[in-house]
Amino acid sequence: MIIIKQVFYHLMKIILILIAFFILSPTFSQTPVPYLKKNGKYIYVDSASMIPFNQKEYDEAEFLKDGLAAVRLDKKWGYVDWKGKESIKPQFDRVYVWFPGAVELNNKWGLVDREGKMIVPPKYDQINIFNEGLAAVCLNNKWGFIDSPGNEVIPLEYDYADEFHGGLAIVKIWGKWGSQKHGLIDKTCRELIPPTLKYFFMTDLSEGLIGVATLNGCGFIDSSGKEVIPMKYESVGSFSDGLANVMLKNKWGYIDKTGEIVIPPKYVDVIYGFSNGIAAVSVNDKWGFIDKRGAEVLPCIYDRIDNQFAEGYAMVELDGKVGFIDKHARLVIAPKYTEAGDFSDGLAAVSLNNKWGFTDTAGKELVPLIYDTVKTCSDGRAWFKADGKFGLLDNTGHQVLPAKYDYAYVFREGLARVMHDGKWGFIDISGKEIITPQYESRPWDFARGFSWIQNKTVMDGRSIFKRQYLIDKAGREYREN
Fold first, then answer.
1. Which tens digit of pLDDT belongs to each residue from 64-96?
2. Percent of the chain with pLDDT strictly greater than 70
3. What does pTM read for this prediction?
């Protein structure tokens, strides 16, 4: 009998703990969202049932982020928590919901935590975003660092302080006649390199080395301040893939971490450093790609090269025509189009003779170039325009929806904004109108399951849009009728 009672006692204890967890945990609780009342004020209601958490009204209300939502009342901002409860009374001129959160009052900044408790009262002239656990702060034109509990871990004694990268931060002290003393500190407030006029430029730490500029030239130092590569170059970049770009006699080349020249300076220009074993370089105003041995993997014959790869492909231009290379700088689509867009969902919009279609990564035109315009492919769907109207295609070129809309946007969370006869609504990827076009002003894209409906006013000939109320994906309006 004693054993049975003990088992029963433990079971009841577990059940009570689970009940408390489900009730108190924000993961399993109701989710508060802004709800517009007839008087123009917002309250927070449960997203599913629309039951109010309370009747506290605000002039402006935001979504929850990390457990808190920013609210405004009588030109002052505060916070509401995940229970819809006011955790910090509106009292600030501005607030930001990145945590610890920054709040402004009378041109001074402070911090609050995720529970809405004040960490640091507004006293700083500026607070930057936290990076690697520390945030740069400024007071009376002097910079230092605080940690997330708000402690000043690095005194405010610098004229400027950069963010921490790799445990190190660049600091500056102004000299005479606009000169700058550059130094380097670690998170313990140790000055690895005391601010000095010796360095008037520093790059961030990259692969263990820092590019610096002196009156005698440019070179590299390590994190202790030791000169690793002599100051003999006219300019230097940062190390990437083990190599750094350096300029000598007005030409660019590449060195390794020992300072040995791997690729002799002979290029007029370079774009960034090496990535995926290749780098973009220019000779005689023509661009190409080289590998880490200096061999041309794509000859320098192109007028323009896009160094930003999308889905592993980038555009190149030759004699007014564009094509594509892959991330190994292999030409996969020869320049033949007058215009093109980035690859998305495996397709890129391309144009020739003022007509648009889509090509795949192999250069096959899955959607023929017959349309007046097309919009980027997303969620396996793409918009086309014909005779002034927008229709919908799938990624094989099959027409899902005939051209019928006056305007259309890409899909977000499975729905796309469309305009028909001057009214806005939403369709899904099958082309079905989930929310019939009925709104006068263009709504926001769906995010976290909701879209903001806007109100349009015209002032001094300019259209001004203001958020009004939310709708969910079923078209339910979060407002009082």
1. 888 889 999 999 999 998 888 998 899 999 998
2. 93
3. 0.81
428-437: long-range contacts (C-beta < 8 A, 24 or more apart)?
429/379, 429/380, 429/381, 429/400, 430/400, 431/392, 431/400, 431/401, 434/473, 434/474, 434/475, 435/471, 435/475, 436/475
**On the CB side of 107, how many CA atoms lie within 13 Å of its CA?**
2
Query: What DSSP assignment string belongs to 129-170?
Result: PPBTTEEEEEETTEEEEEETT--EEEEEEESEEPPPBTTEEE
99, 81 Cβ separation under 8 angstroms: no
Give the integer Cα–Cα distance in Å for 8 and 415.
51
Three-state secondary structure along 162-219? CCCECCEEEEEEECHHHCEEEEEEECCCCEEEEEECCCCEECCCECCEEEEEECCEEE
**Residues whose CB is less than 8 angstroms from the CB of residue 355 and which lie 6 or more positions away in sequence, other chains included:** 369, 370, 371, 372
Say if residues 99 and 111 touch (Cβ distance below 8 Å): no
Looking at residue 59, its amino acid is: D
Segment 410-451, tens digit of pLDDT? 999 999 999 999 999 999 999 999 999 999 999 999 999 999
For 77, what's the count of Cα atoms within 13 Å in the CB-facing half-sphere? 18
Handedness of CA 182, 187, 189, 193 (dihedral sign): negative
C-alpha 442/C-alpha 285 separation (Å) is 44
Q: Identify the three-state secondary structure at position 468.
A: strand
* Two structure tokens written together for 82: 């995940």
Q: Six-digit token pair at 462?
A: 């300019």
Nearest partner of 350 among 362, 363, 360, 340, judged by Cα: 340
Of how many residues is the chain composed?
Answer: 481
* Residues near 245 by beta carbon (within 8 Å), at least 6 away in sequence: 236, 237, 252, 253, 254, 270, 273, 279
Give the dihedral of Cα atoms 228, 231, 235, 241; nearest 10 deg: -10
**Rounded distance between C-alpha atoms, residue 292 and residue 328, angstroms:** 12
- Lowest-confidence region among 22-26, 246-250, 472-476: 22-26
User: What are the backbone dihedrals phi and psi of residue 387, each rounded to the nearest 5 degrees, phi first?
Assistant: 55, 35
How many other C-beta atoms can be found within 10 angstroms of the C-beta atom of residue 460?
5
ω into 26 cis (within 30 of 0): no
